[in-house]
Amino acid sequence: MSLTELPPEIIITILSFLSVSSLGVVLRLNKKWLWFIDENQNTIYRDAAYLEGYVPHPATLLEDIGPREDGMERQALYSRRITDGVEGWKDFCASQPYFCSV
Asked: 3-state SS string over the chain?
């Protein structure tokens, strides 16, 4: 049995232990891995953001990392300069300063 024959939940759990730069390596393995990571990128890159220390909790929502749009007070993790244009966790990880390659 190859790793890609495992249930998706197991593969996502395994990938949750990889750094952002390691995910970049896995993306280049073959089309199956590229497709799988692309289809599950928000979960996989959110876990990578937590592993890298970009967010304080693995269940952090993308909309909770930047300033609120409605003007309500809340301590943001990142400024609007960092979060503008970020549409997913992969974009967010790519915007971090010590990011290697996605």
From this structure: CCHHHCCHHHHHHHHCCCCHHHHHHHHCCCHHHHHHHHHCHHHHHHHHHHHCCCCCCCCCCHHHCCCCCCCCCCCCCCCHHHHCCCCCHHHHHHCCCCCCCC
